[in-house]
Structures are given as structure tokens and as C-alpha cells.
């Protein structure tokens, strides 16, 4: 029975390795940059632009993460402003209003290994009792 489990586990690990090896370096780097941005490690400039008037409506700069479970035609921007301080902005998009996000500085990420972030605090959250 243990040999069967070991063979199955080996097959699963081997399959995952083969699948991961099929992706290209750009995809791995892109995923790792997105993970770094979601961990507030990437400086970004997010600009909201009116396509009819050509005006910038709003600019948000800093250690920001884009979109967390946003609804249709909405975008949330969460920025880290201090060691334990965050600000969250909600923006509506329309036919003539769009946005673009620019990474301000280069960031070093691996193109060979995916980045995995394990945070026990998200598994066992703080509970507020009132």
C-alpha cells in the first residue's frame, strides 16, 4: 500500500514538474512580478485616463496591488503606506475611462522558479470579538 502511494505521489510531482517546465521564462517572470506586487514590493504608477478629453483623471503611485475580486467595470487599488498601514481606492471604469499601470522601477525575479508565498496568518486569521 505504501509503495502505491509513493508511486502515485512521484507521478503527481513528476507531472507538475513537466507542466511547469513547459512554460516560458516570460510567463514565469510575469507571474513572479505580479506576486511581488501583491506583496507590496513593486512601486507602481496607476493612471486613470479619459479617452474623450485626453485628460488624466487620477494618478495613484506607490507600493500598490491591483484588483481584488473586483466587479464588472470596477477596479480596486490597495496601497501600502506604512509598516502596517494601507489605503484602498475603488474606481469605476466606463466607455471613455480606462487605466494603465506602470512599474516604476525594475525588480529582480527568478525566471526559473515560481514564487510561492506562505502566510500562516491568512490560514488562521485574527478574530475580532465585539
Q: How would you describe the overall organization of this protein?
A:
There is one protein chain. The protein is an alpha+beta fold. It has one domain. It has helices at residues 2-21, 25-38, 120-123; strands spanning 43-50, 56-66, 74-82, 85-92, 97-103. A five-stranded antiparallel beta sheet has the order 4-3-2-1-5. The chain is extended and about 70 Å long. The termini are far apart. The model has no long low-confidence stretch (mean pLDDT 81).
> What's the number of domains?
1
Number of strands: 5
Average predicted confidence as pLDDT: 81
- What's the SSE pattern? HHEEEEEH
Question: How are strands sequenced across the largest beta sheet?
Answer: 4-3-2-1-5
Return Rg in Å: 20 Å
> Unreliable segments (pLDDT under 50, ≥5 consecutive)?
none
Strand content: 25-35%
* Structural category: alpha+beta
Largest sheet features: 5 strands, antiparallel
Name a few traits of the molecule.
extended, 5 strands, 5-stranded antiparallel β-sheet, single chain, alpha+beta, 130 residues
Would you spell out the secondary-structure blueprint of this structure?
Layout: H1 2-21, H2 25-38, E1 43-50, E2 56-66, E3 74-82, E4 85-92, E5 97-103, H3 120-123
Antiparallel strand pairs: 1-2, 1-5, 2-3, 3-4
In short, what is this structure?
This protein is α+β, with helices and mostly antiparallel strands. Helices cover 29% and strands 33% of the residues.
Amino acid at each position: 500500500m505504501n509503495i502505491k502511494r509513493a508511486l502515485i505521489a512521484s507521478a503527481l510531482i513528476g507531472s507538475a514538474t513537466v507542466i511547469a517546465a513547459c512554460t516560458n521564462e516570460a510567463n514565469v517572470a510575469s507571474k513572479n512580478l505580479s506576486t511581488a506586487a501583491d506583496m507590496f514590493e513593486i512601486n507602481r504608477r496607476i493612471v486613470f485616463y479619459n479617452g474623450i478629453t485626453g485628460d488624466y483623471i487620477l494618478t495613484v503611485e506607490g507600493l500598490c496591488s491591483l484588483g481584488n475580486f473586483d466587479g464588472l467595470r470596477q477596479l480596486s487599488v490597495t496601497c501600502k503606506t506604512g509598516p502596517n498601514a494601507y489605503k484602498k481606492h475603488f474606481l469605476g471604469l466606463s466607455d471613455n475611462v480606462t487605466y494603465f499601470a506602470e512599474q516604476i522601477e525594475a525588480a529582480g525575479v527568478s525566471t526559473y522558479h515560481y514564487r510561492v508565498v506562505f502566510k500562516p496568518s491568512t490560514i488562521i486569521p485574527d478574530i475580532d470579538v465585539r
